[in-house]
Amino acid sequence: MGLGRHFHIVLLALAAIAVKGWLIPFLFRRAMRQVHIQREVDPYIGYTVSLMLCALGTGLSLVLAHSLPLKAGTENVLIVPASLATLFTGFLLLVSRRKALTQVVGYLVLENGIYLFALLLVEDMPALVEAGILLDLFVGIFVMGIVINHIRVAFDSTDTRHLAELKD
Amino acid sequence: MTWLLILLPFCAAGLAFAVSSARLRAWILPAVGILHLGILSVALTGWRTLPATAWFGLDALGGWVLLVISVLFCICAFYAPAYLALRPDRDHRVLSTCLLAFLALASLLAQARHPGIAWVAMETTTLVSAPLIYFNHNRRSLEATWKYLVIGSVGIALALLGTLFIAYSAHMGGLTEPLRYTRLMENAGLLSRPWLRAGFVLTLVGYGTKMGLAPLHTWKPDAYGETPGLVGALLAGGVTSCAFLALLRIYAVVGAAGEGAFARELMVAFGMVSMVWALVFMVRQTDIKRLLAYSSVEHMGILVFGIGIGGLAARFALFHLAANALVKSVLFLSAGNIHRSYASKQYPFVSGALRRTPVSGWLFLLGFLAITGLPPFAPFLSEFNIAAGALGTGHLASGSAFLILLGGIFLAMSETVVKVVFGTPSAERVRTPYKDTPATTAPLIVALGLALVLGVWLPRPLQNMLDHATATVEGVLSARLEVQP
After folding, report:
1. Interface A-B: count of C-beta contacts within 8 A
2. Cβ-based contacts of A120 with chain B (< 8 Å)
3. ipTM
4. Which of B1, B13, B14, B307 is the most buried (most CB within 10 A)?
5. What pLDDT sits at residue B406?
6. Cβ–Cβ of B120/A140 closer than 8 Å?
7. Residues 6 or more apart from B68 whose CB is under 8 A from it?
8. Looking at chain A, which residue has its C-alpha nearest residue B122?
9. What are the CA-CA distances from residue B110 to residues A154, B38, B49, B244, B267 (Å)?
10. Structural domain containing residue A110
């Protein structure tokens, strides 16, 4: 473990705090102020059912992670089931909510699950790739934010139910 | 030299954003397209060994895919000025910038020798193609863009997780960074199998979403239906080829690790499902652009099916990448012309295209015949050889199913195409001033001509390149096969 690697990990942590802890919430608060919504009121899948499904998903993640071997010395780390469960929760949020903003939150949760898994590899990944992940996350949110703004202007709402004109 | 392939379109994108004259900006596209193709041709003629430690470089596989994209971009770029002149109401600053940025990113992806860099390039490609889909700035294109962004982002996120899984499988085997493709393939025996398998499934689903393999294709008909034909052609032949390349790189690693049989089965299954799904949705599809989108789903299915069968079929699957891109550009651009002329893209509003726009009508008809496998066009050669490869290697059931599906898809597509092309233009249709001009049809004729030439004659250097590319895909990598100027 050289000094360079420590530096790399610290830098990454700082970047994560800045982007995930400050920048994205800032963008979200601004978007929420603009579209005047506080919370999702009528999701496709109700809150109770969502919770049950998430619990089920977490259980499945534990089973799934059990079948994947871990490197000697880290067998007891719960990172893999935690990341799979987070991924599942994000996916569920993404498909079960109507508002464009909530769907983006779902996507962020999903990305967090992946980021959690990447922590297993943090010592072996070059800064280039990890920086790419953060950058893409940011740009992705940025582009989605722009589209949300267009949706708001075009439909006077960010409800994706309006986005149901195209079908076979 | 190969850096120019990335830098040139990238700088041009900046220039296109800065230029204020719309006419001048439209002409940047063909200028960059032809320069890019020229540089690429020069880069591909000089063969030299690429060191295994290189982060970037063109090998046969990347070179082939980039060549296809570059030719396709040229065709679309030469069509663009005339098309954009037809749409004076729409500002094309963002469109031109994003088209050029896409070319830069495709060049980056083709040269990336590390799965992480390839992933970043693929993700950025998704982001730059979103504004392309939103070109028309109406509610329908907004819906298509949102679906594309959300579904595409989830796909790309799963591909990232798959890439991380494969990195962890290398970590388990004691490999450390940099995990370039060459290194992964040389040390494939060390990779941890469960992680490698899980990683492949995730990358297949992830990049498969970007390619538009059923059942992950749901963004495709909406996106292709709502964009100009110009963008549709580039999405159907360019973005999908990028995702296919990223998938093939991982497939090669899995093959080198001796897990080829597992990967092949999945690829064949995905290919079959895509073809069946496309067939089902093509029946009674009256919207010509959505019809083409399902045709794209079908051809992505053919690509992964061919790769999954392997050997001869894999070689012709790579050839089919070029055949599909060329003919799809003819189809999308002529459908775009017909759309301009009728102010609609749906039968019964569109009918009798041969009378109203004879050149575009003929191109659409010939493109349809070519894509469904009429000899001597290139798709016939590839589809025939993929079927022959499947039947010749004992895949009797899937090989026969492949042929039956091709027949069914021909029938399903012909129903709408015949009604759109023949017949008489309905009396109450909207009058538009659009007339076929050489500027809106010449690039299409060139593309169709190329598809015809490829169907009967493939130049020796390209044959060599295809052979090497097939070997790379099949996982038999040696440093000798790498090329670089």
Report:
1. 116
2. 168, 171
3. 0.89
4. B307
5. 96
6. no
7. B237, B241, B321, B322, B325
8. A136
9. 38, 16, 17, 11, 22
10. 3-161
